[in-house]
Amino acid sequence: MRVIGMVGLLAAVLGCNGKGDDTGYSGADLWAEMDGYNTWEQPNGWTGVRPSCTQDHAATVQVWANAVAMEAIAAGAGPFADGAILVKESYGDDGSLRDVTAMRKMDGFAPDAGDWYWGRFSPAGDPGLEGAVAACSGCHGGSGFDYSFVAEQAPVADAAECP
User: Quick one: CA torsion of 2, 36, 136, 146, rounded to 10 degrees?
Assistant: First the structure.
């Protein structure tokens, strides 16, 4: 089974609403809004590919935030405003891009999950998971900064530095 297929199966088991939602917004809309994300600012020293201490997404990741998200990060306080987008690229052990995951704040979208719309895409932009993904909000709900670990965790230069 392909990785994206396994991710879709996991989403079904953990409670994903599948493709899109009743707002009319979809993973394709999120991907379009992310156009040029790799030119956005990288928060809290997340410049370049960094080890992921939790390795939930991959052993190494790279993170960007749009201007709306950076406002909350720079202020050091949440919640994020409507339209905030955080993007994380996950890399395989061979250094190749494995997938791109994003979270977009949408006022009123999923109140029980911080109003975040989630999307995981192939490197080409094909959606795998999208919408109110319980696996995403379940993990990120443990963050002390509006479902964002990037906003509260300093990156490390070497995996040996992970707490």
Answer: 170
Taking the model in full, what pTM does it have? Answer: 0.82
Q: Which helix (H) or strand (E) holds 61?
A: strand 60-65
For tokens 């949440």, name the residue. 78
Whole-number Cα distances in Å, 146 to 48, 97, 103, 113? 24, 27, 11, 9
Looking up tokens 């300093």, which residue turns up? 154
34 with 87: CB under 8 angstroms?
yes
- The answer to whether residues 158 and 150 touch, using CB atoms and an 8 Å cutoff, is no
Q: Which domains does the chain have, with CATH numbers?
A: 3-155 (3.50.70)
Task: Quick: pLDDT tens for 53-111.
Answer: 777 788 899 999 999 999 999 988 779 999 999 999 999 989 999 999 999 999 999 99
